[in-house]
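I hope you will forgive my troubling you with a question about protein structure. I set the record out below, with my sincere thanks for your time.
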Amino acid sequence: MSEPPSSSSPPLSSSAPPTASPPTAPPKSPSDPRPPKDVLVGRVTRGGTGPCYGLETDDGKQYALYNAEGISLEVGTTIRVRTAPLLLKIDCGPGEPLSAVTISRVG
């Protein structure tokens, strides 16, 4: 009878795996950077040639956008908007009033 072949690897230890040491300081930059707060992406809910538009983001938040450039937007179009506080006293409908500094179509 022959003996079973010997294993060249050491037997497994039953001790717990090593643990990582706690961080000594927070990271210098975020690992998941957030998009800029002044950029919105959503669907047009009130379109036309302006100057007022409606926008709804994926989380259901409504915005009343003002842009005097006369951009033609159709309801349902997905857009990306760089915004700024609206300094004019104008009512562009329901939602948080903002100035649409730049508007670009997505897709």
